[in-house]
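Hey L., structure's done. Input below.
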Amino acid sequence: MTYTTAVRNNGPNNVVGATYEFNFPANLTNVTVTPALTSGIAVVTGGTTTATQYSATLSMNNAAVVTFTITGTISSFPTGGTLSVSSAVMRPQDVTDPDATNPDAAVPTDPQSECDALPSGVGCNNIKTDATTVSQTPTTSVAGPAQTLCAATSTTLAANTPAVGTGAWSQVSGPGTAVISNISSPTSTVTGLVTGTYVFRWTISNGSCTPSTSDVSITVQAALGANTITAPATTTFCGSGDPA
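Output:
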């Protein structure tokens, strides 16, 4: 995952010691943050990263812009399938932000508290959030064992049932077009088979993830025709072992 967020000092004064935070869930690992001066004069110091937060101190002249590029790896599936992050900047104690200033005398420690305080009320432009829908990797597809049939016109497929995602059958090749009775059933019946080799594909998909696929071959052999098997004539033997 890659996020890009820009912090601007709208002035009119220069600011020394503002706090920048990027908050993320523990599902996002190997997080790296790269700040870059986009315009004006600014300095970023003290950048540190924990399991769920990056924080740094900003000193920015009026109209300066610093852009942060954050990258990370989604190492586990987030609860509910949504990866939520927030990016926030918080004023230093001796500065008043008309859009995000808690009027009490305490040192600012919570960007949300500063943002929602009176007189501006709930919400401000100092906090930005993002919620990304994450899909689980689908179950690995197993199309089932190959089959060899004798003069059959139908058979039953034997794929695995996905724990994550949904499966679908399709015909890859064959001497004719077979009829798959239920493309979403791992044990669907296939009819309309003729002599030859068919290949069917079981695809398990889930959201935006790469589907998992596997193939199974079904070979239909022709029946033996115009062939007669004749048993040998019956011979009766006496007790001595000589033919009667």
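The CA atoms of residues 69 and 183 lie 44 Å apart. The first helix runs from residue 111 to 116.

-- N.
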